[in-house]
Amino acid sequence: MALLAEAFPDLTAEEWAKRLLASADNSWFSSLGVPVAGSVDFGNGVTHAYSGEWGHGVLDIASALSPIGTVAVLSGDNVVTSNRTSLAESVLLTPAAFGDGLTSALSTTDIAVFDSLNRGFAVQGSDLVTAPRPSMLPKLLSSVQGPAWGVLPSYREVRSALPSASDSTGTISLVNSAAGLFDTAGPTAFNARASVLSIAHDTIAMVSTQQAGPMSITAMGFAGQGAVGQDNGVAGTGINVAWGGEASRVSLGVSYLGEQGSLLGLGQNTTFGLGGGSASGTAHLGIDQMVVPGFEVFGRLEYGVAKQSGATSGLVTSLSDVQFSGFEIGARMNNILGDNDQLGFSIAQPLRIENGTMGLQLPVARTADGTIEHRQSSAELAPNARELDLGIDYKVPLQAGHLKVGLQYRLDAGHIQGASAAGAAVGFRQSF
Questions:
Q1: Distance CA 158, CA 342 (A)
Q2: Handedness of CA 159, 163, 167, 173 (dihedral sign)
């Protein structure tokens, strides 16, 4: 008991005794045929069998000093009344746009987590956040393949296959993604991740285009699923105005994106409650300029603000407005090795958080009466690095179809310093 008192001065004598009994070694009862007289429920799922002759078994000081039962993050003011969420279920998965921002912000602080008998143990704050690097494979494949048979194409694919159709007066299209709405004369292989619209998945979108003299006005509305899961619905609308001719074209647009239960693809859990959802407004700019026939340069920029809605919960006390950006610049050349082939180069920054803070109330210790002590903290959401994607894509007609090749190198992949990735994909589409 003296050892426990020295190690855990913030526990009561009753709690010391509970730890000794709940951690006692009784594993030998069954092997030696010791009859079990009953069991004691110590709370929070911890039970321990005892015998009439040997009691709870042999005391195990090492086990008593270690976590007993399930380690959890407690959200509340007292170890008895607080909501408990297991450490595994408390981990927040941050999307690529957030990079390592939240992980870095929490890496310099310790957080108290509690076992089933309410003893606190310190873990590094960054253990509650994980920032996986996005896989290259889906984007590489999508850059060279066409839509599956019977599947609606994206707006970008419609523009790529039939550029004139997207500018025709009165055109109304039903597509599976509004991605490409704010592009100008044509896409390169990898620009989808630079747009806030990349958050929406499994989308159905209505797109309508009207000509007004030299201007082309395109409006769209869409609904689909977010990146977090089935309960994460997204919906939005936008309008884009483009004007110019074949030699020069400028595009300006605005869009609105509403998310249910997430913020720019950042989901929530019991420990990190972000409220009911978010609303994002984005301004879009696109420029295409022909330098000489067969060679043109282009640039696209998005900048927006996302605002969280509803009350935060768990460890989160506040969430500021979050600013984000994405861009791509590049060049296209036609008729390089043969008639109607096209070679494109691009440098793109995928969607990235530029500014934003999360207010946190972090548990750091407990007192003998069970009160949880907290530290108020503010975590910057912007990552420390900026991913740049260097891309090359080549398209050449072959017989009744065409061949597409895409290459990409990601510098500071996932907006994480020092991370990198490279990949290549080849696709062939046959027309019948």
A1: 18
A2: negative
Q: What is the pTM of this model?
A: 0.85
Contact by Cβ (8 Å): 322, 303: no
pLDDT at 211 over 90: no
What CATH number does the domain containing 163 carry?
2.40.160
C-alpha to C-alpha distances, 208 to 25, 213, 216, 387, nearest whole angstrom: 72, 16, 10, 34
For the CA atoms of 286, 290, 296, 301, the dihedral, rounded to the nearest 10 degrees, stands at -10
Report which of residues 420 and 133 the model is more confident about.
420
Q: Helix or strand or coil: residue 408?
A: strand
pLDDT in the model for residue 185: 45
Q: Is 59 within the bounds of a domain? A: no
CA nearest to 211, candidates 179, 171, 239: 171
67 assigned to some structural domain: no
Can you spell out the DSSP letters for 231-296? T-EEEEEEEEEEEE-SSEEEEEEEEEEEEES-BTTB---SSEE--SEEEEEEEEEEEEEEEETTEE
Pair of tokens at residue 107 = 């890496």
pLDDT of amino acid 424: 84
Residue 71 to residue 284: CA distance in whole angstroms: 46
**122 in a structural domain:** no
Write down the mean pLDDT value for the chain.
Answer: 86
Mean pLDDT of 118-124: 95
Structural contact between residues 390 and 411, judged by C-beta atoms closer than 8 angstroms: yes
pLDDT at 144: 59
Q: Would you place residue 190 in the very low, low, confident or very high pLDDT band (cuts 50, 70, 90)? A: very low
CA 85 to chain CA centroid, nearest Å: 21
Domain containing 159 equals 137-430
